[in-house]
Design goal:
Layout: H1 10-26, H2 32-44, H3 51-58
Helix pairs in contact: 1-2, 1-3
Length: 59
Amino acid sequence: MANDNQDISNEIFDVLKLKKAILAISSHLPNANDAIVYLYEKTKEREKLIINCCRALSK
């Protein structure tokens, strides 16, 4: 475990945000609509979604 605050790369941060969005959608959490909007915005920015995003959205 890190003792100090550390920066993480944007790529890792983006993957973590995607996974958080997937969890919100697939678990039907109260913020699922916000997660869907987040994914929509990312696709408009030409970001690629990981396959789990597509699976979560298809349910």
